[in-house]
């Protein structure tokens, strides 16, 4: 279970970091669709939080 928790945490942390970098690049380029990327980043953060809460309750 600990290995699964670590793997899930790493997956969601990497998704969160990739989305944050994407948002920073789009804001720097003054490109639209920043709201969509922010929403995707928010969803990945919520998945990370939910997975941590779920796995800590096991």
Notable characteristics:
0% strand; 58 residues; single chain; 88% helix; mainly alpha
Please provide a written account of the structure.
It is a single chain. With 58 residues, the chain is mainly alpha-helical. It has one domain (2-56). 88% of the residues lie in helices and 0% in strands. The protein has 2 helices and no strands. Keywords: Membrane, Transmembrane, Transmembrane helix.
Number of domains: 1
Q: Average pLDDT value?
A: 74
> What is the total tally of β strands?
0
> What is the helix fraction of residues, given as a range?
over 70%
Biggest sheet architecture:
none
Please provide the ordered H/E string of secondary-structure elements: HH
The radius of gyration computed from the alpha-carbon positions, rounded to a whole number of angstroms, is: 14 Å
- The parts where pLDDT drops under 50 for at least 5 residues are none
Shape: elongated
Structural class by sheet pairing and helices:
mainly alpha
Number of helices: 2
How is the topology of this model organized?
Elements: H1 2-29, H2 34-56
Helix pairs in contact: 1-2
């Amino acid at each position: 279970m600990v290995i699964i928790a670590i793997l899930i945490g790493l997956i969601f942390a990497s998704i969160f970091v990739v989305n944050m970098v994407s948002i920073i690049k789009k804001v720097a380029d003054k490109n639209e669709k920043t709201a969509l990327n922010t929403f995707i980043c928010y969803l990945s953060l919520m998945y990370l939080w939910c997975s941590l809460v779920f796995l800590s309750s096991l």
